[in-house]
Amino acid sequence: MKLDNSQLQFFVKKIKLRPDNMQVYRDQISNLKQRLENKIKDDDRTGLKVTKYLLAGSWKKHTILRPTGDNPIDIDLVLFIEGDEDVQNDLKKVHDFIVEYLEEIYPQKDIKKDVDKEGNKSIKIKFSGTGLEVDIVPVVPINKLGDYVWQPERGGGGKYITSVSRQLDFALGLRKSNSSYTSIVRMLKWWKNYKEINQTKNESGLSSFSIELIVAYLDIECGVEDNIEEAVIRFFQFLSKPNFPVISFKNAINKVPEFDTPIFIADNTNNENNVAKKLNLAKWKEVIEEAEDAFDSLNFAQARNNEGDTIEEWKRVFGPTFGVK
Questions:
Q1: What's residue 113's pLDDT?
Q2: Are residues 168 and 107 in contact, defined by beta-carbon separation less than 8 angstroms?
Q3: What whole-number distance in Å separates Cα of residue 257 and Cα of residue 160?
Q4: Which end of the chain, N or C, is more open, meaning fewer C-beta atoms within 10 Å of its C-beta?
Q5: For position 146, which CATH number holds?
Q6: Residue 324 lies inside a defined structural domain of this protein
């Protein structure tokens, strides 16, 4: 039997960060924002400066999930850095500046302790009590490209050009055109975490951003699908295709370059950026296998004659917490 949106929203409410649990995180975020605003206003140093900040990621895109043991609440905080024309050529300089800057804002925290020891130059602020993790994303504005910025690649490896504000505007447009967009993305993010095919700082996998862009691409190319069940099945069918297409976006700058990765999913603001760059062939095959299994299971679920058997098939895909009432 088929499940309607109201039934699936019951599950979405279980896996999303509930509004009544958000205030404690909001308090910590508000405190961080106030410290940043005061620092930016009072900072009289010459040379490198943080000129503004922007919250981004799943918190801002309204696709955040409730925390689990392996997946804490994390928020992207973008810091815009200006004041040195050569800074784009010196990743270490950017990294060291941000560490020093955060130490000035939070003298009670050991920022260096929280810097990734694997050498990938990622920086987090970790809050006790809630377990909130704030990923610091330094960017340098490129004046000749409007709202585009230069950003160090997470996990090391170089830098790229993107637009954080356009990514957020893109996500807002998707939410406006498809009332079920955030629910669809949340369910698929939960699936990748449950199946352990998610990308981590040390392992290849399917990233949340990749999922968001695939769902967006399907809405753009195949038509908006606000039926959650059909959208989820469409996603799994798409991933199961023998020839996964190159995904690009017409309103993004540049063209897709030559690539040697299993798939290419362009950043919706710059077609040169492959957000699936770290997805290796072995993990991609695993993703395909899980998608094929999910597609078969959910099609079989639609053919079952009673709700109990239908729910069991959905649990194979989304785990034992799945339910519709």
A1: 59
A2: no
A3: 13
A4: C
A5: 3.30.460.90
A6: no
Kindly state the average pLDDT of the residues 232-255: 96
> 89-143: per-residue pLDDT in tens?
677 788 888 888 888 888 887 776 555 544 445 688 888 778 888 888 899 998 8
Co-location of 287 and 173 in the same domain: yes
CA atoms of 250 and 114, how far apart (whole Å):
39
Structure tokens at 116: 């990734």
The H-or-E segment that residue 316 falls in is helix 307-318
Q: Let me know whether 175 and 285 are in one domain.
A: yes
Q: How far apart are CA 232 and CA 295, in angstroms?
A: 9
Indicate the pairing of strand 133-141 with strand 49-56. unpaired
Least confident of 51-55, 155-159, 167-171, 293-297: 155-159
DSSP state of 64: P
- Statement to judge: residues 299 and 262 lie in one domain: yes
In angstroms, rounded to a whole number, what is the distance separating the alpha carbons of residues 158 and 278? 13
Do residue 185 and residue 308 come from a single domain?
yes
Strands 133-141 and 149-152: antiparallel
Q: How far is CA 133 from CA 22, 28, 29, in A?
A: 14, 10, 10
**Residue numbers of the domain that contains 158:** 16-163
Instruction: Give residue 129's pLDDT.
Output: 79
In a domain, 323, yes or no: no
Beta-sheet strands, E only, within the chain? 49-56, 74-82, 123-126, 133-141, 149-152, 159-162, 266-267, 270-274
